[in-house]
Specification:
This protein is of the alpha+beta class. The chain is 63% helix and 14% strand. It has 8 helices and 4 strands, in the order H-H-H-H-H-H-E-H-E-E-E-H. Helix 1 packs across helix 6, helix 2 runs antiparallel to helix 6 and helix 4 packs antiparallel against helix 5.
């Protein structure tokens, strides 16, 4: 069942990405799709109402349209969610957003990473680390999320493409304790 949902989400994302490219709206639609997916996941009321089987499909569509108008969503996104609602696939919105973002990242040569660091870093330190990570990954662009994590004691931990680079003092101490 999960695999079927992943396949469906990927197909919706591919079709939507293709339309977004044709209209030269990929960055705008990526932002709007991520915002909509975040609100969908972060708001229990919205999915609860939209997925209520007692509510007529027309009423659900009206609610989605109102929600998207508040977001300032472009018509392409409104159409996508309308089709997904009609086909009973609206629950796939977060997965569609992830797939869409992955396609855009691939096309832009962009790698996403999270850097947890023990203390505040200067802009120069951030730029230097970002440059090193770009060299390591072969990326043309980097989308780094910075997270202050004092429990690391010193240094940083980067998670990028399913891999972890642990340059933290805590990590070094843990590795040293396993050796002895």
């Amino acid at each position: 069942m999960k695999n079927m949902q992943n396949t469906a989400a990927k197909r919706y994302a591919e079709a939507f990405y293709s339309l977004a490219q044709e209209e030269a709206l990929v960055p705008q639609l990526a932002d709007q799709l991520n915002l909509a997916a975040g609100q969908w996941q972060g708001n229990q009321d919205l999915p609860g109402v939209i997925l209520n089987p007692r509510l007529a499909k027309e009423k659900k569509q009206q609610l989605i349209n109102l929600w998207l108008e508040e977001l300032g969503a472009l018509p392409l996104l409104q159409n996508l969610l309308g089709v997904m609602l009609d086909k009973g696939r609206i629950v796939l919105l977060p997965q569609v957003a992830q797939e869409f973002q992955a396609m855009d990242d691939r096309d832009q040569g962009r790698v996403r990473a999270v850097c947890k660091h023990a203390y505040s870093l200067s802009q120069k330190q951030k730029q230097s680390l970002e440059q090193k990570l770009m060299e390591l990954s072969g990326a043309r662009a980097m989308a780094l999320t910075w997270v202050l994590e004092p429990s690391l004691l010193g240094g940083f931990v980067v998670t990028m493409g399913g891999k972890t680079i642990d340059g933290s003092l805590k990590g070094r101490l843990n590795r040293a304790s396993r050796i002895s």
